[in-house]
Amino acid sequence: MKRTLTTLFLALAVVLAPFGPAVLAKKQQDPSAQAAKVKADVIKRLNKKETHVKIRLRNGSQVMGHITQTGDDSFKLTEDKTGRSTDIAYADVQTLEGRGMSKTKKGLIAGGIVLGVAIAVIAYAFTHLFDD
Description:
2 domains, 24% strand, SH3 type barrels, five-stranded antiparallel sheet, alpha+beta
């Protein structure tokens, strides 16, 4: 029985192995849609005065700085290290991240803490209140 299960598991692994890269591959977005999303995010951050960002460009480089100005096709970023201003096209941005944790991460951490405290209170109640 054990040998049969092992054989079936190995056969399944061999059959499913070629699908691994296909499952992990990211779906390519339309460059114009990605640029519009980045532009909306830059404008939103500038309006909220959350201008400190970390940007990963399509060529693989990473830039950190403050957004100072927006335009139709690009925005101006003042780099932290050098202090110089650089125009970056929206289409050249791969990812744009703000400073600190997102609200989702903060909410999940708070939820985990509340859940942990609730489990601790329930465990304490079971061990001390129902000790008859």
